[in-house]
Amino acid sequence: MAQKVTITDVARHAKVSRQTVSNVLNTPGLVREDTRRRVLEAVETLGYRASQAARQMRTGRSRLIATRIEPTRDDIDGTVYDRFLHGLTESAAEAGYRVLLYTADDDQSEIATIDDLLAAYEPDAFVLTDTHHGDVRTSWLAGRRLPFVTFGRPWGMPEGPSHPWVDVDGAAGTAAATRHLLDAGHRRIGFIGWPPGSGVGDDRRAGWARTLAAAGVDPAGLDRASDGGVAAGEALARDLLDADRPATALLCVSDSLALGALHAARSPGAGGRANGGAGMPIAVIGFDDTSAARAMGLTSLSQPLAEAAACCVALLARALDGAGVIGEANGGAFDEARSGAGLGAHGPVATPVGTETSRSPGSTMAPTAPGGPPAQVLLQPSLVVRRSA
Amino acid sequence: MAQKVTITDVARHAKVSRQTVSNVLNTPGLVREDTRRRVLEAVETLGYRASQAARQMRTGRSRLIATRIEPTRDDIDGTVYDRFLHGLTESAAEAGYRVLLYTADDDQSEIATIDDLLAAYEPDAFVLTDTHHGDVRTSWLAGRRLPFVTFGRPWGMPEGPSHPWVDVDGAAGTAAATRHLLDAGHRRIGFIGWPPGSGVGDDRRAGWARTLAAAGVDPAGLDRASDGGVAAGEALARDLLDADRPATALLCVSDSLALGALHAARSPGAGGRANGGAGMPIAVIGFDDTSAARAMGLTSLSQPLAEAAACCVALLARALDGAGVIGEANGGAFDEARSGAGLGAHGPVATPVGTETSRSPGSTMAPTAPGGPPAQVLLQPSLVVRRSA
DNA sequence: GTGAAAGCGCTAACAA
DNA sequence: TTGTTAGCGCTTTCAC
Description:
2 copies of one chain form a homodimer. The first copy, chain A, has 3 domains: about 5-50, Orthogonal Bundle (434 Repressor (Amino-terminal Domain)); about 65-170, Response regulator (Rossmann fold); about 170-300, Response regulator (Rossmann fold). The first copy, chain A, contains 16 helices and 12 strands. Chain A has helices at about 5-15, 20-25, 35-45, 50-60, 80-95, 105-120, 135-145, 170-185, 200-215, 230-240, 255-265, 270-275, 290-295, 305-320, 325-330, 335-340; strands at about 65-70, 100, 125-130, 150, 165-170, 190-195, 225, 250, 285, 300, 375-380, 380-385. Chain A has a 6-stranded parallel sheet, with helices on both faces. A 6-stranded mixed sheet of chain A has the order 7-6-8-9-10-12, with helices on both faces. The radius of gyration of chain A is 25 Å and the shape is elongated. At the A-B interface, helix 4, helix 5, strand 2, helix 6 and helix 11 of A face helix 4, helix 5, strand 2, helix 6 and helix 11 of B. The structure holds a DNA duplex. Chains A, B: Keywords: DNA-binding, Transcription, Transcription regulation. Chains A, B: It comes from Streptosporangium subroseum. Chains A, B: This is Transcriptional regulator, LacI family.
């Protein structure tokens, strides 16, 4: 066990009082240059790092950000949040925070867990994921004035100022994908989505419908939905491909559905009917750019998850550490956040095809917070084109 | 912000002194029944939960377990650790611990981060993953007598007592898979592995080689290796299928390589040569049973990751909380650990095909700790059979 | 069986 | 500018 070095040791070594050491660390401006240097040298020599527990007792701040890790879902789509978590841990570390994990099966048990956590570990903030209609977690947290950000919009909430959130513009993504398919000559572009009522699913469907409408294409009979996985995707794809006016391209709300669709599309004879026997192959596009999509050559919409995580941390840092600290603390992640939010620029794109740059008309954009950039950030997904489209 | 309820509030409410409350919570045996009940009632009413920070200052225990989350790898194989992490968080919670996350790019920076964490948050223990030859992290931790478990054997260490570890018997898995292929009539079973020198990869290859040898099959020319992903798997598979004596089945060290191999195996004409024009299709088996494998109908070896995580927590709980508490604290996970470790029974199998039950001869099994079950646990993977084999 | 006192390491307020 | 004092909430002696 490494010897515990306390502030007293440092003070003794630097021949100053304990408080001076504390000042050097927390309020460097108050301390004379040479004293400061001597103290820092002692800190370095002794390898001193302040005890969070002691600091927390005094300041009430734990420098902990808590977030939920979903119960093990072995499906393809579950990996998305894991990637977000990677980014969150990295960004948090850069901002001087650590990530504390918890699990919960539903909203109510999550609230209970948050309550426990609050009493025991006092995390400074929470990052909530998977927001949905009638989300009781956000109102619970907001009611207690606890700092939090959601990765996901406050679906179904009345317009106007809300809690800080970061999200990816799904509608813009599916719009870009639809346009990509239109540009490739497709007209009958089917959509395989989730059943209506899911904020994310409806948003993604809207981008497809809107783009089809703008191109003068009637979407009638091209819309299917399921909350299943690969098998469901395959079945719905077959249904769309066997319809009276069969689809020639399939846009899917998730990679798991898309992989099923891809299987149907690549199966012998699938393209036959739709394209008059020898036309182009059925195009398939998924959503999330999972590793499975990559492996299967599935074109997919990629969410900037690391950026989203960085924005979450930036938003929290702003709320927790006050304005002005943000730029240094997180390596400029917040600037990225702003640029993606609706200033015309779009985030880093490292893919063959550009992103949808225009803001999605249907998306909510709450007014800016007084005296600062918006606390609502909408990032743009990018289309990663592979063999399947 | 929820009103903070301190032990003083509880004491006042129950009309006892502060440490009587503390006694009720920490040493219930010392307190008279009715006093105890009154105090617990007050705790309930007020919703009191002890502050970890304050408790930690006094006891030196944080009830935090720290583990690394790998930098975002968008490959298929990276999802394995994520699933382990889900389980770890759940099991830790059941044992009264929370999981604290950190990131690091290599062993040295991980050690530095651990050192930082130790000074600041004082985690009670660490869970290390991805152990490898010449792992400096374990010796660093062991040298400081810090409690830790690894998920992964201490590859390349001299036999004998070592630190506590939990691992999955890869060789037994590939042996079972090989036997499955032999039973199906295959003789020329190729292996696509990682380059020699990786403990995990070599172990998995050994299970294949040993089983082939036991069946009297000459493995010459059937062994390939790469540290690449899907594309590499496809290339190596083609190589094996185009050889003078082509393979009729392919066993792969990872799902990403296997998915590539599957693509090669399913491509038109692949089975032709090997099976004399019209034989059975090329069989492919992967490792890790990832979501991509499931989606693609790839037969794969499934690691009991949740059990592994539970064993890690059980081992830590034993070291931290002392013997005797384990049974209650973690819901019997430790018993599972023992049974999987070499007592003849095998872990839960929810798959069509049974697991390899016999202990792998090549695997290390350090002596039991004095006065307790072994601190080394070897779990068995199970073969999940799908279309590909 | 219960209560009083001390102190973990830190920092905010105040004194010098 | 630096040092002193006090106390965050808890548990571990030690009296009673």
